[in-house]
């Protein structure tokens, strides 16, 4: 029997697989899965693009911090964040206090393949979304690299295989995952 002692907080770029892999990881560990984006959407009764459009990004970021603080006070679980959440020092401090940050690292080409056909990410609604993604990637990588654990994605690893890879990395950390 394994016991999760800290909330596993998935961080990284849009398209890295935080939501999909986080969900599979929670199932594998037998703990609850939460996604900060889903919590914000539920509380606002609006989609992410609607929140960005009507209330602005600053409003979204304030709700994101509230949601992280609330979920990190609860029982250990897997918590997937939105790609911008780990950029703020306040959010990183909350995560440090009661969680462990896992950066799902993926290269730009893989990220682009995963997000290019979606319209659900307001930050990519620009004239050249590929270039916008590149700029966000360059600016954010130094901050993601502050995460406690780094797990590399690969185009040929399924969601389940990625979840197993994260679980194996957590098993190296007795302060996070206890037992067999
Ligand atoms: N390892 C993987 N293999 C195949 N598809 C994946 C993998 N990880 C994520 N995906 C797909 O890529 C897209 C983006 O994943 P998602 O979990 O939403 O990323 P994030 O939450 O980091 O933005 C989704 O369609 C998801 O199903
Ligand atoms: O990178 C970002 O700033 C964002 C990423 C999105 O989440 P995913 O990383 O799950 O796509 C969502 O929070 C919002 O569109 C902003
Ligand atoms: Mg997500």
UniProtKB/TrEMBL annotation:
Molecular functions (GO terms): ATP binding; magnesium ion binding; shikimate kinase activity
Binding site for ATP: 15-20, 121
Record: residues binding substrate: 37, 61, 83, 140
Keyword Cytoplasm: yes
Cofactor section: Mg(2+)
Pathway assigned to this chain's UniProt record: Metabolic intermediate biosynthesis; chorismate biosynthesis; chorismate from D-erythrose 4-phosphate and phosphoenolpyruvate: step 5/7
InterPro entries xref list: P-loop_NTPase, Shikimate/glucono_kinase, Shikimate_kinase/TSH1
Primary localization class, coarse: cytoplasm
Cofactor comment: Binds 1 Mg(2+) ion per subunit.
Gene Ontology CC terms, in alphabetical order: cytosol
Family label: Belongs to the shikimate kinase family.
Protein name as catalogued: Shikimate kinase
Source organism (scientific name): Paragemmobacter kunshanensis
């Amino acid at each position: 029997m394994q016991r999760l002692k800290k909330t596993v907080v998935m961080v990284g770029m849009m398209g890295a697989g935080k939501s999909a892999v986080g969900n599979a990881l929670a199932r594998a560990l037998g703990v609850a899965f939460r996604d900060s984006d889903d919590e914000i959407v539920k509380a606002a009764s609006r989609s992410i693009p609607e929140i960005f459009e009507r209330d602005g990004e600053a409003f979204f970021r304030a709700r994101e911090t509230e949601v992280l603080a609330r979920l990190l006070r609860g029982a250990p679980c897997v918590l997937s964040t939105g790609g911008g959440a780990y950029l703020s020092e306040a959010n990183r401090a909350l995560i440090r206090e009661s969680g462990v940050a896992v950066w799902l690292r993926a290269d730009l080409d893989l990220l682009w393949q995963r997000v290019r056909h979606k319209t659900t990410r307001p930050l990519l609604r620009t004239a050249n979304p590929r270039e916008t993604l590149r700029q966000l990637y360059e600016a954010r990588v130094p901050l993601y690299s502050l995460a406690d654990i780094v797990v590399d994605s690969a185009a040929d690893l399924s969601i389940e295989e990625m979840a197993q890879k994260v679980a194996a990395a957590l098993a190296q950390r007795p302060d996070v995952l206890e037992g067999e």
